Structure formats: C-alpha cells, structure tokens
From TrEMBL:
Known function: Component of the cytosolic iron-sulfur (Fe/S) protein assembly machinery. Required for maturation of extramitochondrial Fe/S proteins.
PANTHER family: NITRATE, FORMATE, IRON DEHYDROGENASE (PTHR11615)
Annotated family: Belongs to the NARF family.
Coiled coil: none
InterPro entries, A to Z: Cytosolic_Fe-S_CAF, Fe_hydrogenase, Fe_hydrogenase_lsu_C
Protein name, per record: Iron hydrogenase large subunit C-terminal domain-containing protein
Length: 471
C-alpha cells in the first residue's frame, strides 16, 4: 500500500510513504479531510482533525507568530464583541469589563511613541476607558505575590535537598507559558517536577480579581500582554473556575493588537486623552500615577533577582545589595559568531553566592529555546550546576515578546525598551504595602493560598493517530 499526503492551501507539496495510499488536503484551515485507499480498492474517509489552542506545541512557529485566525476567543474582535453586547444590556445585568496591564506592553508603547512609562500607561488607560472598559489595573501586586511565592518555594526545596530529601533542583520558573507548554509536550514526566508551581502574574491577577470583585458584579477580565503564548495560558483548563465555569482571565490581547485597535479607532496613542489607572483592591482611581513601578532585576519579572537576594539572606545570612551577572559564552562558537562576534551569549547569565569559600547558590537566566534545550539536556545528563533558573522562551525575555511593537528597527526598539525599564522606579514585594492587606484579608490560610497562587502541570502524550503517525 502507499500513503500519499498532499498539503494544499496554507501548506504546499506532497509526500509518499510506503504503507497505505491516502490523501490529506487542507482546503481551508477549519476543513481538513483525510481519505485512504487500501489495496483492495476501498476508500474510507477518516475522522476530521480537530485543532485547538491546547494542541499548540509552543514551537513559536504558528500561534506565537501571528495565527490570529486560530484564536477566536482571545482576540480584539472578541473583546469588541463583548463590549458591544454589554452596552445593550440593562445596567444591572451588565458585565464589569476590566483590563489588567503588564509592564512590557506599556514599555513597548512608551519606547515607540517617545513618551514616559507613566504617560504611556495613562494614555492606554484612557484608550480602554474610551471604548467601554470600566477599570484598568496595573498588574504589579500579582507580580509581587508571584515573586514572593516563587522565593518561598525555592527556599523550601533547597532546605529539603540539603537535608537529603528530594528537592527537585534546579527550580525552574513558571511564568512563561511558551516554556511551560514546551516542557509539557516535549519533556513531560522528566521536567515537570522541577517547574515552580507558582502561577504567573497574569493568572494570579485573574484569581485575585475574581475572588475580590464587588459581590454584585459579573466580571469580564482582559489582560494586555507581550505575547500570544499568554492566550494559551489563559485557555488552560486549570484556570477555569469549576463552579461558575468562567476563566480567571477571559480574554488576552497583545501589544500589537492594541496598536491595531488604535488604528481602527483612527488614533495614535499620543492623541488619546490620559485617564487614571485603578487600584485593584479598592477599584477606585489611583491618586498618584507615579506610584507605577516595575520589579528589580530582569524585564521578565525579576524572578532570579528576588529569589537570590532572599535565599542569600534567609539561608546564609548574607545581605546582597547588587547582583553580579556573568554573561556566559556560546558553547558552539561557529554557529553563533554571526550574531555575537564577541562570543557572548546574553541570553545565558549566571549569578553565584560564595559563602565561607564555597559556592552555595548558583542561579542562571536562560532565555530562548536554544538555551532551554541545552539546559534540559544538561539536566538529563545530571550535569546541570544550577539551583535556580529563570526560564523564558523569547530571546531577551518578555521585553522582546512575540507580540511587542517592533518599529522600523527592532533592535533599536528593544534597546529603548530595556533602557526605559532601567529608568523606572522599581519596587520589591517587601515595600509593596498592599500585599499586607492581601495576606491579612484574602490569602488567609494555606488552602486559599494554594488555590489562588499555585497551579499544576500535565505531561502531554504525543498524539498518535489511527495511521500510527506521530504528528
Ligand atoms: S518570554 Fe516570551 S513567550 Fe514567555 S511570557 Fe515572556 S513574552 Fe511570553
């Protein structure tokens, strides 16, 4: 028998494999037909393929590049539809539509428009409020909770490993859904115990808002994020409230989608009237927008920096005021020389704590799939020297997310974003006074804390179809 697979429409070309004769056509993305011709001449139409967000391999080749068409429930069109529908409801039945904004999209607009972080944030708030969104929140409280929880998790695992128990080190961060999705689908059972169970800031924000919203309100929660992978994260079954059957984050829109929304409204961000952001605890406008802050450390959340400083203090009594990042060299120079003639791999950096003459903490930033693959291979060969790794799928991390604005010169745009990030006032979770309220009033016991701040992961078996072909 022969198998013949033809890809039409989005794909082109054909392939013949010994076995049975079959034809696979893609007349349209939602219409996939597979028929087989056996040697006895009978013809059979095989089951129609179903592809959803959960099937994404996070390979950065499809959804992460621009397959808007596949993401029907997570798009600006869906947001406009909800806003439109809401405006026709009776006031007491209307949804409260709110947006939580991550810092990277604000930085991206600020760099693109040549304005300050604060101005970009308030103009974005003005834009959202102008199209029918009632509240706009900064996501920093959720980020600070995520940092605190990751740090606690690391210290617990480090202590366990020192006392001879299984500590599953290195602890690998979990805030990047591109990386988590890749880990679940590619290295499943091996890698998942090493990944921090702490939710990302997006998902903590979702849980908190749905938990603390005014009682009489039904919430529709939108987030503004730097990449399409955050849509995958929001669509995970783990983040669906089993009672109300609603998601903690109902819709994710990205930086470039907001840019196209502005175009649709005939505006540039600089033409939008600024408005105050709102406090996610009181739901009232912030009195002083200059209290907008970013985290210390990397522009991808600062997980390494926060965890390192606290582990040094709590585990070894060392006060670390400034971290000394060591940029590593590419291991296979000939492949990388064109990109970095000096041989330095900016996406792999290490920090160590030497205490009593011994390296006690060995942390790393590992960004981009090339470095991630090397990291996983080292772990599999038991040659990984690290205790903690901040893992991000995008080269240069979230500031360079797949849905950020690129401008005419993407490298120059990224450099501006990084520079702006360094200039903004930073805040540590310890100096965030609102966290005390959350600890005292919301995260009152271990069960609540676990439900609101932690998640779980699932190894995904490779999809083997009736032809026994692994796609
Ligand atoms: S590293 Fe990239 S894919 Fe991962 S969360 Fe950040 S922007 Fe998204």
């Amino acid at each position: 028998m022969m198998i013949r697979i033809q890809f039409k429409s989005r794909f082109s070309g054909s392939k013949t494999i010994s076995g049975i004769q079959a034809q696979l056509t893609f007349p349209d993305l939602d219409q996939i037909q597979l028929t087989s011709n056996a040697q006895d001449g009978t013809k059979k139409t095989l089951q129609k393929a179903q592809i959803t967000l959960n099937d994404c391999l996070a390979c950065s080749g499809c959804i992460t590049s621009a397959e808007h068409i596949l993401i029907t429930q997570q798009s600006q069109d869906e947001l406009y539809r909800v806003i439109q529908e809401n405006s026709h409801k009776d006031p007491d039945e209307q949804l409260e539509i709110v947006v939580s904004v991550a810092p990277q999209p604000i930085l991206s607009f600020a760099a693109q428009c040549g304005i300050s972080y604060e101005e970009a944030a308030t103009r974005l708030a003005g834009f959202f409020k102008g199209i029918g969104i009632s509240r706009v929140f900064d996501i920093s409280h959720a980020r600070d909770l995520s940092l605190e929880e990751t740090s606690q998790e690391f210290q617990a695992r480090y202590r366990s490993s020192q006392s001879g128990e299984t500590g599953f080190l290195p602890l690998l961060t979990s805030a990047c859904p591109g990386w988590v999705c890749y880990a679940e689908k590619t290295h499943g059972h091996f890698i998942l115990p090493y990944i921090s169970t702490t939710k990302s800031p997006q998902q903590i924000m979702g849980s908190l808002l749905k938990q603390t919203k005014p009682r009489n309100k039904s919430l529709y929660h939108v987030t503004l994020m730097p990449c399409f992978d955050k849509k995958l994260e929001a669509s995970r079954e783990d983040f669906v409230d089993q009672v109300s059957k609603t998601r903690d984050v109902d819709c994710v829109i990205t930086t470039i989608e907001v840019e196209s929304m502005l175009v649709k409204e005939g505006l540039t961000l600089k033409e939008v009237e600024p408005a105050q952001l709102d406090c996610p605890l009181t739901w009232r406008p912030l009195k002083n927008p200059s209290i907008l802050t970013v985290n210390r450390g990397s522009a991808s959340g600062g997980y390494l920096e926060h965890t390192f400083v606290h582990a040094a203090k709590e585990l070894f009594g060392e006060n670390v005021l400034q971290l000394d990042y060591k940029v590593m060299r590419f291991e296979i120079l000939w492949l990388e020389l064109l990109e970095a003639p000096n041989g330095l791999n900016q996406d792999l950096q290490e920090v160590t704590l030497v205490h009593n003459g011994e390296i006690k903490l060995h942390f790393a930033l590992s960004y981009g799939f090339r470095n991630i693959q090397n990291l996983v291979q080292k772990m599999k060969r038991k040659k990984c020297p690290y205790h903690f790794v901040e893992v991000m799928a995008c080269p240069s991390g979230c500031a360079n997310g797949g849905a950020q604005l690129r401008g005419e010169d993407p490298k120059a745009q990224l450099a501006k974003v990084m520079q702006l990030f360094k200039e903004i006032q930073s805040q540590t979770p310890e100096s965030n006074l609102h966290l005390r309220y959350l600890h005292n009033e919301v995260l009152v016991d271990d069960e609540t804390r676990k439900a609101l701040l932690h998640t779980q992961y699932h190894p995904v078996e490779k999809n083997v179809n009736s032809l026994n072909i692994k796609w």
